[in-house]
């Protein structure tokens, strides 16, 4: 936001409620911002709301955090004594234009409209459409549940730009399941496509009554020195689809038999597909490969694998 120089004054960080994130809607602090502030200082003023002698950040939370990490004494700021609805909406729209508004920030914007400005549902719905949020997310109880998620999940959603449609299933999870999801995110670099599937599978596993098995299995997995998101996904997938390991054991046995014929078989991950790769060598001056002779034993083994997909 651009303010007249005459409206900007230096404010000590000690006089700012730096940890007050009520109005914070921007994505998590980018690391390069700290480096930039160390080199150039805080160029763009922050917006502070003066209440009862305290300065509450309205816009520029990341700049305040970065300034504190850079050990600055003060930041340039514009001080206001009240914030109007149109001023807040302008902040939202500017952040949206600058791609500084993550999924959680968009949803948090709706919360501020309800809670601070006492906006009616029609206005909230109109702003939700501007922010490309589904109408299911304008219910205040859903908004509160989302912004109340553990911080590690909130930061993950915003940093990975998780689509709002994949957030709604989380609202159906129990608190222990949400806490488990937070532990998983903290444990490894979780790919977005895995995250979306894991949320759905955790809900399914709990519905199956296997939530204790899931908790114990993940807890055991987290004791390892290092784990990957593949390890996590495989663990949850195996509980959600108990027949999966049985199928994979049968496939491994068949693959060993095919290997005796110098045939290698690759199956799709988690058997989610309708084709396999069959690799074999045809050597000069050697008998014709059994597969080319349409050996029924070999073809039968391949058909057995196809039947398990």
Strand order of the largest sheet: 1-4-2-3
**Main CATH class of the largest domain:** Alpha Beta
The proportion of strand residues reads 5-15%
Largest sheet: 4 strands, mixed
The residue-averaged pLDDT reads 87
DSSP helical segment count: 13
Question: What Rg do the Cα atoms give?
Answer: 27 Å
Structure description:
The chain is an alpha+beta fold and 309 residues long. The protein folds into 4 domains: 1-83, Conserved hypothetical protein from pyrococcus furiosus pfu- 392566-001, ParB domain, CATH 3.90.1530.10; 84-162, no CATH class; 173-240; 243-306, no CATH class. It has 13 helices and 6 strands. It has helices spanning 31-40, 61-69, 85-97, 103-115, 121-130, 140-147, 151-159, 175-187, 192-207, 211-221, 229-240, 243-259, 296-306, and strands spanning 8-12, 46-51, 54-59, 74-80, 263-266, 277-280. The strands form 2 sheets. A 4-stranded mixed sheet has the order 1-4-2-3, covered by helices on one side. Helix 4 (103-115) runs antiparallel to helix 5 (121-130), helix 7 crosses helix 8 (175-187) and helix 10 runs antiparallel to helix 11 (229-240). The chain is elongated. The mean pLDDT is 87.
Topology:
Elements: E1 8-12, H1 31-40, E2 46-51, E3 54-59, H2 61-69, E4 74-80, H3 85-97, H4 103-115, H5 121-130, H6 140-147, H7 151-159, H8 175-187, H9 192-207, H10 211-221, H11 229-240, H12 243-259, E5 263-266, E6 277-280, H13 296-306
In a few lines, what is going on in this structure?
The protein is an alpha+beta fold.
């Amino acid at each position: 936001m651009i303010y007249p120089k005459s409206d900007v004054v230096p404010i000590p960080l000690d006089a700012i409620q730096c940890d007050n994130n009520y109005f914070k809607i921007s994505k998590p602090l980018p690391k390069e911002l700290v480096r930039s502030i160390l080199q150039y200082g805080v160029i763009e003023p922050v917006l502070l709301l003066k209440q009862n002698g305290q300065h509450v950040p309205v816009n520029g939370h990341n700049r305040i955090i970065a300034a504190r990490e850079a050990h600055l004494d003060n930041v340039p700021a514009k001080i206001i004594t009240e914030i109007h609805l149109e001023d807040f909406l302008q902040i939202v729209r500017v952040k949206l234009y600058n791609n500084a508004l993550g999924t959680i920030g968009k949803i948090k914007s709706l919360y501020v409209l309800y809670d601070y400005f006492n906006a009616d549902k029609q206005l909230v719905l109109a702003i939700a459409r501007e922010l490309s949020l589904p109408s299911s997310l304008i219910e205040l109880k859903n908004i509160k549940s989302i912004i109340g998620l553990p911080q590690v999940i909130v930061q993950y959603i915003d940093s990975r730009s998780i689509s709002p449609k994949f957030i709604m299933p989380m609202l159906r999870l129990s608190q222990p399941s949400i806490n488990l999801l937070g532990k998983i995110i903290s444990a490894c670099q979780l790919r977005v496509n895995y995250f979306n599937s894991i949320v759905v599978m955790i809900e399914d596993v709990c519905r199956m009554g296997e939530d204790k098995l899931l908790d114990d299995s993940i807890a055991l997995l987290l004791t390892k020195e290092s784990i990957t998101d593949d390890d996590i996904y495989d663990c949850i997938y195996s509980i959600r689809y108990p027949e999966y390991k049985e199928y994979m054991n049968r496939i491994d046995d068949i693959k060993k038999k095919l290997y005796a014929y110098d045939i290698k078989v690759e199956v799709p991950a988690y058997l989610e597909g309708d084709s396999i790769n069959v690799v074999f060598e045809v050597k000069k001056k050697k008998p014709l490969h059994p597969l080319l002779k349409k050996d029924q034993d070999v073809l039968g083994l391949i058909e057995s694998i196809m039947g398990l997909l």
